[in-house]
Write a sequence for this structure.
């Protein structure tokens, strides 16, 4: 099959969150299944010279975006069996921040037009156009009319993946004709209309031939207002074509046997190296060099839906267990401040790393004992899977992909790959964490067995890529 995969961020070129990781690894897995996969993304200012050197300029043309005809240059790069198209327009993308501009609606409408118009210019006949989140949500809508106009798009079906329903692309109705270039017929209740606005994600859920989200549990949760952020009715109305498929991770990139970022490599056969990683982490984070103290870690954006009200409220309880703690990430000031204060109050035992750092994250995945992720909502979550690969046991709330990827410890059978709790409740979280810490102190044999279970769990894309393939076949009737 010919697959065009559209995403506003793709690792390793440009990344702000988990979407980039998925867009950077799912296409490869699909290519390995024998498909012709091409990924299209904006050529942002921040995409570095080392990548630009490897690109070749293919062509340029002018896009149709309402009354505008902006320039669109296409650069091509081939890597790991996948072709990447970079969409160049300096007016829209020569800016340091990738999101958060006054004209984001126009910038991503432009990009979505580029996704629709590029196949006709490069002579690619996609069977599937796979779009992701609100930034490419207009693509399935454009495709409704465009597949009658462009021969290359005649056989194309659209698949839309929701990575996070919280960000929907909601704008005033004035953007419909003037920016999106769509007429009033698209502004009805089973398309873009949403109260007095237009809602791009809503439109995509109606217009796409199929909709997926990034875990089976999240697909279930989207039926409830608590998770669906105003789109529960829309999800219910389209339930017949919505399915959850758990993300994978790049298991070659995250491999404790060969990760060069670790102080010492290790494997599920021999965990000795992990002790050295722990010592290195304690050194790096300014924690006391104590091989016996369990290290509880958080690597995350410090925002409320990641559960940081629970974490910041439980600091003293956690310190009371004798554990050490390290938090890495930036975000809301009140959480940053709570962690800075904790570091000041518990020197050598609490480490607040208020920054974003890949090397530090690797040191944590490798050296910590417990990975705390009590998200209020988590469509999939990737870091709990990465932590498990490195034998760092997750403590998670049972929601979305956390529920689908972590098997809670069963004290009767000894099975499990981590620990979990059900309610958004600080007491419940500390209870789960205490249970974990007690096991760490009291029963090292079971602990090591859990580590091995976690490390040998299959988080590769192989399984999920097959599920996507099934969706592609279903929509194309192939
Ligand atoms: C979003 C979600 C996260 C998911 C990621 C990749 O960032 O919040 O849970 O893992 O997308 O699908």
């Amino acid at each position: 099959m010919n697959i065009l995969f559209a995403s506003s961020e793709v690792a390793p070129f440009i990344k702000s969150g988990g979407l980039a990781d998925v867009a950077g690894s799912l296409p490869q897995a699909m290519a390995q299944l024998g498909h012709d996969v091409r990924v299209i993304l904006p050529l942002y200012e921040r995409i570095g010279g080392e990548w630009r050197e490897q690109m070749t300029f293919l062509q340029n043309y002018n896009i149709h975006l309402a009354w505008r005809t902006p320039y669109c240059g296409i650069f091509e790069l081939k890597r790991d069996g996948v072709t990447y198209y970079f969409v160049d327009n300096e007016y829209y993308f020569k800016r340091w921040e990738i999101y958060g501009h006054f004209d984001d609606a126009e910038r991503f409408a432009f990009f979505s037009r580029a996704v629709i118009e590029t196949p006709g210019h490069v002579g690619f006949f996609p069977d599937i156009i796979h779009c992701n989140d609100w930034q490419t949500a207009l693509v399935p809508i454009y495709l409704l009319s465009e597949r009658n106009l462009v021969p290359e798009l005649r056989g194309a079906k659209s698949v839309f993946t929701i990575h996070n329903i919280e960000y929907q692309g909601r704008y005033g109705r004035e953007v419909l004709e003037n920016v999106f270039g769509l007429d009033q017929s698209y502004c009805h209740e089973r398309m873009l209309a949403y109260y007095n606005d237009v809602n791009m994600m809503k439109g995509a859920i109606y217009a796409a031939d199929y909709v997926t989200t990034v875990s089976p549990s999240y697909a279930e949760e989207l039926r409830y207002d608590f998770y669906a952020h105003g789109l529960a009715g829309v999800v219910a109305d389209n339930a017949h074509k919505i399915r959850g498929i758990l993300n994978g991770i790049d298991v070659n990139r995250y491999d404790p046997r060969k990760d060069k970022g670790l102080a010492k490599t290790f494997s599920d056969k021999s965990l000795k190296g992990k002790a050295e990683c722990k010592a290195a982490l304690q050194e790096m984070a300014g924690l006391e060099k104590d091989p016996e103290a369990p290290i509880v870690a958080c690597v995350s954006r410090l925002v409320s839906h990641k559960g940081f009200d629970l974490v910041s409220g439980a600091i003293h309880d956690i310190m009371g267990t004798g554990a050490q703690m390290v938090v890495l990430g930036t975000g809301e000031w009140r959480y940053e401040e709570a962690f800075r204060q904790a570091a000041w109050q518990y020197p050598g035992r609490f480490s607040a790393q208020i920054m974003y750092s890949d090397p530090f994250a690797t040191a944590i995945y490798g050296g910590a004992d417990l990975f705390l992720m009590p998200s209020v909502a988590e469509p999939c979550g990737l870091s709990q899977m990465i932590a498990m690969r490195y034998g760092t046991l997750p403590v998670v709330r049972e929601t979305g992909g956390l529920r689908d990827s972590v098997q809670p410890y069963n004290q009767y059978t000894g099975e499990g790959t981590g620990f979990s709790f059900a309610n958004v409740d600080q007491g419940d979280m500390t209870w789960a964490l205490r249970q974990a810490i007690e096991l760490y102190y009291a029963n090292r044999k079971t602990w090591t067995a859990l580590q091995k279970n976690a490390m040998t769990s299959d988080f590769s894309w192989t399984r999920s890529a097959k599920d996507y393939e099934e969706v592609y076949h279903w929509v194309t009737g192939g």
Remarks:
- The first helix runs from residue 18 to 32.
- Residues 17-19, 22, 163-164, 214, 247, 378-382, 401 surround alpha-D-glucopyranose (CB under 6 Å).
- The mean pLDDT is 97.
